[in-house]
Amino acid sequence: LLRTYLVIDSVRSLQLVAAAQLSKGLGYTVPQVDLHTMNTVQNMVLLEWPPLYSVLTAGLLRLTQFNDVLSSAWMDSFGAFLYLLGIWRLAACLGFTPVLQMIIVWFKCTEIYEGFLASFPTDFLAAACWIWAFYFFLEYLDTPKKKWILKKIEEKEAELKNLQKTKKQFEKKNTEKCRVNKKFKDCKLKCQS
User: Fold this and answer.
1) Which among 23, 54, 138, 141 is least buried, having the fewest CB atoms inside 10 angstroms?
2) Which residues does residue 42 pair with via DSSP β-bridges, in sequence order?
3) Do 32 and 44 contact (CB within 8 A), yes or no?
């Protein structure tokens, strides 16, 4: 696996430069030089990728004294660990036995090496975030304690039904009062004439 981390290609190199700029306090930027003004370096915002990988790597760069290979290796290992742990927890949430969980995780481990060589460095972090989001969503749906939102919605629906019932009763009483008042006015007009 060490061969994987020594490959710093175009995507990873740009994100590592942005991480170095972040750790220096220059923001999520990459330095660029225009051909007409070669002496002036402009820090341009990196718009190609979301900043999660660079933000996390910026802290690692400070810890490793700007060793980009070591920081990249730690970041990729962290992303792979979160990815595999998310798969493990998701399989457990779906009710798989521990043996099947282990088989699933071992199967997913086989794609990590090739995945690091062929995909962007942020792919495993992004996949891990999606897997964990899906896991927490399933946990939320499965846990009765966390269904307080559904209970609140049911309570509000019951209150709305009571209000509608009260409104109908009020309208019915007002309609009867109007009929009585109309009859009283009619009688009063007849008596006066």
Assistant:
1) 141
2) 32
3) yes
